[in-house]
């Protein structure tokens, strides 16, 4: 194919040809286009640079993918319009990775490259290239050879795991060691990751590490500075701002640093001689990219490890079904502590809904803070240790209902859920924001309201009354605490916002378990256990007085996994059930979401594999619907190719109604 012709310049014979990925979000244009390279750009328009080209009558951005002597296109070619920058920002390894990710997720190469390469910042490009920071004693530079230094001398924390020292030795030797890591309670996971990355750098190779949020990034940043020395790594995050993000990206692309850490923005970071990719807490939904083609950081990093023959480390307090699949297929080895070590490091964990507790406290079945939880908190505070209370919902009363008939209170204007922002605030709609001061129940005409769901701020208010004189803090989306001092404190946190306590929490209370376990989600149990283990891991060991109380029935499977601190058992059980039912990751599944007519149009154009099962439709947001397509994992490539080709047919026909195609989406229903 060729770009738009230019009438002001005639092509000359023998000019080199540039193959360009045009930045157009249309599926039928997902292929390179050939352009002639003008003589004045022959030395600077190299593969990996950004260019501007004429396409379909307009000037658009593009990436120069390759230079060839002649084009396969038999028609007339036009010239590159101009070179945006001579900086080769797109590394060959990242181009190969981006193409693989686009093919896996039924997406366009241009969309993936937009995620992989941050926007250009011209002033940063003109800054002098800094010299690589000197490495500490015993740590070679990014291009140095291997050293005989034993990495386990620094990685003493890995000795708590039988396979840990061998994993570090394999990384130092440059072997593609791949592991699924289950962290012990109270573990300094950032130090363990920094030690694994340092072992990789000892072997003369680079590393990429991805975490879910800014708090985890700060912890890993500090741990790497201690392990490698200052200036030996960069942090890459979308929250840095354009200049700082592009400066960090260029440092990695130019080989100034051997290690890049960051949030999911770092999953495509270019690193010379990649030897290790790592991801912490891969079950966190923040690792899923919300922009097309919706790749997951874990899958991108595992693809990088496969393409680069690099090591991989997938870790967390819990274990996802996808990580368990890596272990069961033999792609990765398990790194876990012995049961004796786990028991020594685990806090005392107790449920409130089993028979012995109900016999002692009959109200435990309905109480939000049963006597067992109240006693654990009081004992921890008396011992001058902080207490963590995890609640699933933020706000004050995020959901209310009629006090007489228990019907959920809805907005009379948009039917959205009503909520209370404080004890004195009138009900307000969470969707349209309208205040409903004189609410009347449409079913029973009642005017009294009650709490249906209690949020973090209301919980903090109730605990403040229950424990007068004890400081109560909240940690959530609006204000995230990173650390709390030792002493008698009450901290109410939503999942993901739990702070670290000096010396560990004396007690951790896990409230409102029903709000997590009853969600209409395939991953409800897995996500619940992940959130519970994340909070419980912050408690002191049982020998130091640490206690965890979960307000739930002890017979539930996620509660059993928590009581035994056995995320591997739960993940294996979850994976086995999904195999039996035919759900991811045992199979590959794609969702097609849009209006009924648009979804039917795309599926009619798709040449699906003969093994494909089409399920649905199921209702989606607004007035749209969703169809699910399921295939065996071995046919995943055919499914993605068929959906991408069908999307190309629709864009070529200029279909007006959009359809969202997602491969292995986190939410199916």
From TrEMBL:
The keyword Metal-binding applies. Binds 2 zinc ions per subunit. Keywords: ATP-binding, DNA replication, DNA-binding, Metal-binding, Nucleotide-binding, Primosome, Zinc. Zn(2+) 1 binds at residues 402, 405, 441, 444. It holds the Pfam family PriA_3primeBD. InterPro entries: P-loop_NTPase, PriA, PriA_3primeBD, PriA_3primeBD_sf. Residues 123-158 are annotated as: Disordered. Its cofactor is Zn(2+). The keyword ATP-binding applies. Residues 130-139 have a biased composition (Pro residues). Residues 19-118 form the Primosomal protein N' 3' DNA-binding domain. Zn(2+) 2 binds at residues 411, 414, 429, 432. Component of the replication restart primosome. Belongs to the helicase family. PriA subfamily. Initiates the restart of stalled replication forks, which reloads the replicative helicase on sites other than the origin of replication. Recognizes and binds to abandoned replication forks and remodels them to uncover a helicase loading site. Promotes assembly of the primosome at these replication forks. This is Probable replication restart protein PriA. It comes from Micromonospora echinofusca.
């Amino acid at each position: 194919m060729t770009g738009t012709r230019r009438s002001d310049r005639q092509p000359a014979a023998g000019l080199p040809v540039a193959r360009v990925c045009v930045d157009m979000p249309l599926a039928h244009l997902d292929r390179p286009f050939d352009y002639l390279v003008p003589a004045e750009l022959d030395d600077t328009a190299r593969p990996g640079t950004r260019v501007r080209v004429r396409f379909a009558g307009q000037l658009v951005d593009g990436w120069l993918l390759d230079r060839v002597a002649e084009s396969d296109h038999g028609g007339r070619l036009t010239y590159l319009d101009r070179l945006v920058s001579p900086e080769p920002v797109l590394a060959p390894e990242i181009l190969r990775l981006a193409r693989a990710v686009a093919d896996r997720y039924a997406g366009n190469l241009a969309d993936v490259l937009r995620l992989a390469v941050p926007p250009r910042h011209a002033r940063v490009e003109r800054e002098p290239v800094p010299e690589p920071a000197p490495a500490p004693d015993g740590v070679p530079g990014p291009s140095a050879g291997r050293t005989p230094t034993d990495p386990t001398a620094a990685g003493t924390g890995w000795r708590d795991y039988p396979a840990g020292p061998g994993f570090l030795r394999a990384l130092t030797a440059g072997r593609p060691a791949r592991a699924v890591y289950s962290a012990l309670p109270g573990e300094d996971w950032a130090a363990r990751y920094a030690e694994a990355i340092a072992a990789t750098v000892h072997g003369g190779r680079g590393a990429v590490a991805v975490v879910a949020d800014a708090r985890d990034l700060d912890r890993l940043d500090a741990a790497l500075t201690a392990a490698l020395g200052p200036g030996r790594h960069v942090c890459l995050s979308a929250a840095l701002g354009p200049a700082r993000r592009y400066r960090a990206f260029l440092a990695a692309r130019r080989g100034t640093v051997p290690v890049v850490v960051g949030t999911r923005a770092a999953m495509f970071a270019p690193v010379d001689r990649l030897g290790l990719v790592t991801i912490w807490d891969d079950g966190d939904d923040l690792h899923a990219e919300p922009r097309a083609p919706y790749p997951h950081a874990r899958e991108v990093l595992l693809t990088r490890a496969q393409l680069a023959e690099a090591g991989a480390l997938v870790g967390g307090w819990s274990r996802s079904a996808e990580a368990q699949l890596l272990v069961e297929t033999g792609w990765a080895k398990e790194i876990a502590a012995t049961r004796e070590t786990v028991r020594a490091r685990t806090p005392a964990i107790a449920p409130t809904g089993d028979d012995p507790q109900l016999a002692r406290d009959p109200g435990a079945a309905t109480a939000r803070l049963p006597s067992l939880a109240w006693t654990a908190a009081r004992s921890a505070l008396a011992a001058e240790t902080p207490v963590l209370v995890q609640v699933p919902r933020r706000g004050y009363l995020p959901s209310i209902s009629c006090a007489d008939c228990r019907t959920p209170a809805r907005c009379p204007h948009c039917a959205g859920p009503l909520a209370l922002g404080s004890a004195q605030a009138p009900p307000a709609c969470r969707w349209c924001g309208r205040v409903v001061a004189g609410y009347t129940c449409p079913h029973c005409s009642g005017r009294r309201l009650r709490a249906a769901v209690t949020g973090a701020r209301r919980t903090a208010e109730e605990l403040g009354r229950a424990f007068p004189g004890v400081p109560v803090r909240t940690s959530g989306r609006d204000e995230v605490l990173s650390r709390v001092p030792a002493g008698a404190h009450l901290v109410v946190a939503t999942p993901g916002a739990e702070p670290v306590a000096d010396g560990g929490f004396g007690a951790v209370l896990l409230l409102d378990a029903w709000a997590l376990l009853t969600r209409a989600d395939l991953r409800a149990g897995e996500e619940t256990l992940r959130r519970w283990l994340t909070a419980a891991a912050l408690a002191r060991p049982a020998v130091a007085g640490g206690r965890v109380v979960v307000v739930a029935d002890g017979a539930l499977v996620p509660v059993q996994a928590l009581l035994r601190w056995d995320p591997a058992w739960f993940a294996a059980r979850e994976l086995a059930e999904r195999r039996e039912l035919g759900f991811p990751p045992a199979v590959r599944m794609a969702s097609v979401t849009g209006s009924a007519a648009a979804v039917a149009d795309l599926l009619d154009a798709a040449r699906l594999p003969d093994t494909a099962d089409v399920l649905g439709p199921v209702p989606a947001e607004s007035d749209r619907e969703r169809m699910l397509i399921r295939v065996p994992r071995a046919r995943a490539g055919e499914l993605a190719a068929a959906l991408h080709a069908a999307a190309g047919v629709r864009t070529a026909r200029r279909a007006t109604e959009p359809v969202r195609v997602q491969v292995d989406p986190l939410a199916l229903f």
